[in-house]
Amino acid sequence: MATKHDGARFSHNDSNVVVIIGSGAGGGTLANELAQKGVDVVVLEAGAHNTQADFKTEEWDAFKLLSWLDPRTTSGSWRVAHDFPALPAWICKTVGGTTTHWAGASLRIQPHEFKARTTYGALDGASLLDWPLTREELDPYYDRAEKKMGVTRTNGWPGLPGNNNFKVMFAGATKVGYRECNTGHMAINSVNRDGRSHCYQRGFCFQGCRFGAKWSTLYTEIPKAQATGHMELRPSSHVARIEHDAHGKVNAVLYYDANGKLQRQKARVVAVAGNSIETPRLLLASASDRYPQGLANSSDQVGRNYMRHTTGSVYAVFDKPVEMYKGTTMAGIIEDEARFDSKRGFAGGYHMETISLGLPFYAAFLNPGAWGADFTKAIDAYPNTAGMWIVGEDMPRASNRITLNSNVKDQYGLPVANVHFDDHSNDEAMREHGFKQGTAVYEAAGASTVYRVPPYPSTHNLGTARMSARAEDGVCNSFGQTHDIPNLFISDGSQFTTGAAENPTLTIVTLAIRQADYIASQMSRRQI
Amino acid sequence: MEGKTIGIALDRRDEDAPPMRVPLTRRELLKGSGILFGTLALSSTLAMFAPSRAWALELQHLDAHQGAVLLAMVKQIYPHKTLDDAVYAIAVKDLDAKAQKDPATRKQIADGVRALDAKAPDGDWTRQTARIQASDVSAIAGTPFFETIRSTAVVSLYSNPLAYRHFGYGASEGDGGYLFKGFNNLAWLPDPPEQDSGPVPAA
User: Fold this and answer.
1) Helix, strand, coil % (nearest 5) of chain A?
2) How far apart are CA B76 and CA A294, in angstroms?
3) Which chain A positions have a beta carbon within 8 Å of B179's beta carbon?
4) CA of A169: which chain B residue's CA is closest?
5) What is the per-residue burial (b if ≥16 Cβ within 10 Å, else e) of A488-508?
6) CB of A310 within 8 A of CB of A393?
7) Selected residues 307-366 of chain A with any CB under 8 Å from a CB in chain B
8) End-to-end CA distance of chain A, in Å?
9) pLDDT tens sequence across A291-332
10) CA-CA distance, A200 to B176, in Å (whole number)?
11) Nearest residue of B to residue A446 by CA position?
12) How far apart are CA A182 and CA A336, in angstroms?
């Protein structure tokens, strides 16, 4: 991996290339899978090419280096709109996308979750749908994704050793009777493999893994793709519009290059992997005479059904030190509540996963806007604090959506994305249950004080160009191919029909591997 | 937010102090519009680590009195019994930088400080008792001036090496990893069984 390879160079007029927009879990993986098959690929990444050497330990510095900080707006009754009105999502704008920042949890979506509408029934105010895919169909691709990413507890790789934060979670989980608590399935090397070292327990998973033990497309898929000679990476390239020909097929991408100059890259196929906020923004912004509602939007589903997982955190203070910041951020997972069990008063399930924040972000996120003696008491107890994150399935809603906000423009003068979200009553019931169970876990381990912490800006952004069996229910088919335009693909979490209770990256990678097989075979058969 | 170096100038008076690790700024060289001075308490956990117990903060746009009022106000917003003024001063430094960058913020701060002073019988809010200061700060909670001070302070107070020492956060000390430096040294709970945790790599 250390070998530098600049990759291929393709002409702007080369109309035979696959253009991939975004270099994260979806885009970066798709690029490598296609390049390995000899398909020529141009990757346009809005962010700069920061490397492992550029990563910071200071939380605010790392945040500024890696995050998507272009303006966005928010609306709706969710608390994020109040606490972080200009920052609905905590995701990245850098080569590697949010795989630089993710914590590594890699869980397969459960079989029943692919059939959410059938399993949960019709819920008022929710636009539930079954996926046009089953777990059985996806399992062979999950196998390939886990092998690629080095997921612990698969393929004979051991689990990661648990840190202090995990010990606290495990002790409490055991006492309340949970049976499925361990150091999780993590795309973090527990042994040296694939030219990358094992984890040294730095604790800066969110700030970028300097050792490269955590899988990120930045130092796996992208250099591997470049080494084939079939992939060109263009960092600092912000796509403004996708164009189409007289037959309605996409044929070029307009983007601002690193110098702010507008460029047109011709394309045979376009795959959009800009995360669930930028992907629909781009489809909507590409409206034309032929497609007045935006590309691939005859169903009016582009931007709708935005999901962000039902989240919340529980932090607990103990009499003795924990030092949660030492070691992996997501050091352990409780899976018992991920099951479907309507007796709990809500559909879907959730996971409890350890989380840790450094002092700067603990202060920023504990209770945004808070001050005074109650707040400082919590900060004073920082070293004795343990933490967990609740991550569960939220309900898709047609009214939760990404739209273009023409009143606010970004640095290129383009309308920004507005993110509208209202919690469904199911989400609220689940969060409440999670808070109670998280509290029970920590009290069983001896906590003296427990804090319920509201959701952070969203990292799991899903569903805004969802796959559906019927064209009128969604935007793309089970391969991410848009129903309306056969050579336009959705390659990120926007494809998710429902959110499921699992951290989405493994499934995004899995779908990208499957999509690459499909695109390559369609290309060789001249179908696209 | 920058947080890489301690953003306060240190003035050496103690001949026995350990060698300076930050550039010495002589008082006579401080050219700003105001200077805040202080001395680290002997009991402060930071006294062991600072090159000198005396500290000075040079302000560019606020005067010394404004700086002193803001420092007192930040102490009321985020009251930590044993946190040294040197750390609170970092919040004042960042407010000074914001005042320098933005005339509207400068005016907001000047007006806010004046309003607090006006509540004090002798026109100097810093001489009010802590109890009165606390109630004055409560009374303006949520105002734009208060939010400017609070939202700056919540970042600056907790994002600097002095705070990391004080509150017990490893920060950049963890850059090499805690694998052989206590990532699992918690001994007051039982160790999870092998199948639920995982082996520690040999090297």
Assistant:
1) 30, 20, 50
2) 52
3) 199-201, 327
4) B192
5) bbbbbbbbbbbbbbbbbbbbb
6) yes
7) 320-323, 325-327, 358-360, 362-364
8) 33
9) 999 999 999 999 999 999 999 999 999 999 999 999 999 999
10) 7
11) B189
12) 11
β-bridge mates for residue B56, sequence order: B9, B37
How far apart (Å, rounded) are the C-alpha atoms in residues B176 and A211? Answer: 9
With beta carbons under 8 A apart, name residues in chain B contacting A158: 198-199
**Beta-strand pair B9-10/B54-59:** antiparallel
The pLDDT tens digits of the residues spanning A200-220 come to 999 999 999 999 999 999 999
CB contact under 8 A, A159 and B196: yes
Angle between helices A425-444 and A164-175 (to 10 degrees): 100
Q: Give the per-residue pLDDT at A5.
A: 60
Burial track B184-201 (b if 16+ CB lie within 10 A, e otherwise): bebeebeebeeebbbeeb
- Structure-block tokens of residue B162: 């002095």
Distance from CA of B139 to the nearest CA of A (A): 13
Residue ranges in A249-372 assigned as alpha helix (H): 275-285, 359-365
> Quick check: A326 and B199 CB within 8 A?
no
As a whole-number percent, the residues of chain B with pLDDT over 90 amount to: 70
| DSSP-assigned states of every residue in A5-70 | -------TT-TTPEEEE--SHHHHHHHHHHHHTT--EEEE-SSB---GGG--SSHHHHHHHHB--S
Which residue out of B45, B88, B165, B186 would a mutagenesis test of the A interface target, given it has the greatest number of A Cβ atoms within 10 Å? B186
Q: Is A328 exposed, middle or buried (0-12, 13-18, 19+ CB in 10 A)?
A: buried
One-letter identity of residue B108:
Q
Q: What's the pTM value of the predicted model, to 2 decimals?
A: 0.94
Quick check: B199 and A167 CB within 8 A? no
| Distance separating alpha carbons of residues A245 and A411, to the nearest angstrom | 28
What are the structure tokens assigned to A392, written together? 């569960």
| Six-digit token string for B132 | 């009165």
